[in-house]
Amino acid sequence: YGKNTIKFLRLHREGKKHFVKEVEVCAHLRLTSPQEYLDGNNSLVIPTDTIKNIVLVLAKKNGIPSLEQFAIDICNHFMTTFCQVAYVKAYVQEVPWQRLHEDGVPHIHSFICVPDGIRFCEAEQCRNGPLIVFAGIKDLKLMKTTQSGFEGFYKNEHTTLPERHDRILCGELFCKWSYGECKDFDFNCIWKKIRECILEAFAGPPDCGEYSPSYQKTVNCIQMLVLSRVSQVQVIEVILNNTFYNVVDMKNLGLTNDKEVLVPVEAPYGSCACTLGRKKFFEA
Questions:
Q1: Distance from the CA of 126 to the CA of which of 7, 207, 210, 212 falls in 20 to 30 A?
Q2: Are residues 99 and 186 both part of a single domain?
Q3: Which residues span the domain enclosing 87?
Q4: Confidence bin at 115 (pLDDT 50/70/90)
Q5: Residue 99 annotated as lining a ligand binding site
Q6: Is 48 annotated as a binding-site member?
Q7: Tell me, what CATH number does 254's domain have?
Q8: Residue 147, phi-psi category: left (phi > 0), alpha (psi -120 to 50), beta (remainder)
Q9: Where does the chain bind 5-hydroxyisourate (predicted)?
């Protein structure tokens, strides 16, 4: 049981310069005894309102140096404070506020919300067990207008999809990775590096791009690049929900539409998912 959707803004001041971190937290506990479920005995139950207040107090006292560290702080507090807690899980996601710039100059106290992917993390721990940390990015919408195709696929009497060697590749990406057992990582730096890997693998070189023969291959390229460059990542899951675009037929309007006006196919949409990890992690 626990408390969901604990939303708050943490404001940090350094002189006239302000820093903001707005987050949504879910904190769940499992107790050593199920007596509240079986017998209606609430003597071990930590009220969910207390859980909410603890999260807010930790934000006040510790700040939020990184989402991962804040999730770790939540787990540590419940494990060290309440002997009846057998398991704790903390989920934290961030509202994407970025500092406002005017003529290239960063503003000291103004921000803009830029929805270019939502950062999130999870930390979980069983009593007498290791602290496990996950992190990720979701709702990251990506598009490239060429250097993508889909050919040579299996065909039978139900196949109506034509082969395409030049199409728009567009989708909403979800990516979650595991650090394995928690260590003293620079979580902010690693998250930014992984996000850069995602964008690079999706788009290819800025002057020419890189051909994608399928959404599946693009998903794999993202995972392989992250694992090759970020040694702290043990397992990475990527889901790419596809958005397809159809070229509008304008012949009846007396116009030739050379893939200049397209409409999105709202539903149904495709989805590709894959989980990839290091061999030593799975063997362990």
A1: 7
A2: no
A3: 1-129
A4: confident
A5: no
A6: yes
A7: 3.10.270.10
A8: left
A9: 48-49, 150, 167, 216, 242
